[in-house]
Write a structure and sequence with these properties.
This is Phosphonoacetate hydrolase. Keywords: Hydrolase. Belongs to the YjdM family. By secondary structure, the chain is mostly beta strands. It has two domains: 42 residues, Single Sheet (N-terminal domain of TfIIb); 56 residues, Roll (SH3 type barrels). The protein is built from two helices and eleven strands; from the N terminus they run E-E-E-H-H-E-E-E-E-E-E-E-E. Strands 1-2-3 form a three-stranded antiparallel β-sheet. Strands 7-6-11 form a three-stranded antiparallel β-sheet, with no helix packed on it. A three-stranded antiparallel β-sheet has the order 8-9-10, with no helix packed on it.
Length: 119
């Protein structure tokens, strides 16, 4: 390797590798952009800013409203626009799914912050 990669911010593993623009830890599976962690150290990884569809900052425990109808695999109806979701949890999800929640009638699922509005 031409330059040394930073250790994993979650498990401190030194065996990280680059994958496109991300740095990946093979031990815990954590992925991050190296510029984010270099700018603010530990504060940058713990203080991630997630915004809803209209630009409001979301936090753990907030209530949100779904702004557009969503198809749900295995469900004939899906989630309708206007469905209220309480007590969200922000996560580092897959494919942009950064909200973990429980929706009445559907159970636990992950949503993208771009399809919700803070209630």
């Amino acid at each position: 390797m031409s330059d040394s990669l930073p250790p994993c911010p979650k498990c401190s593993s030194e065996y990280t590798y680059e994958m496109n623009a991300l740095v990946v830890c093979p031990e815990c599976g954590h992925e991050w952009v190296p510029a984010e962690s270099a700018e603010g150290g530990a504060d940058a990884t713990s203080e991630r800013v997630v915004k809803d569809a209209v630009g409001n900052v979301l936090r753990d425990g907030d209530s949100v409203t779904v702004v557009k109808a969503l198809k749900v695999k295995g469900s004939p109806s899906g989630i309708k626009a206007g469905t209220k979701v309480r007590n969200i949890r922000l996560i580092d999800g897959v494919d942009g799914h950064d909200i973990d929640c429980r929706i009445e009638g559907f159970g636990a699922m992950q949503l993208k912050s771009s399809v919700v509005k803070k209630a």
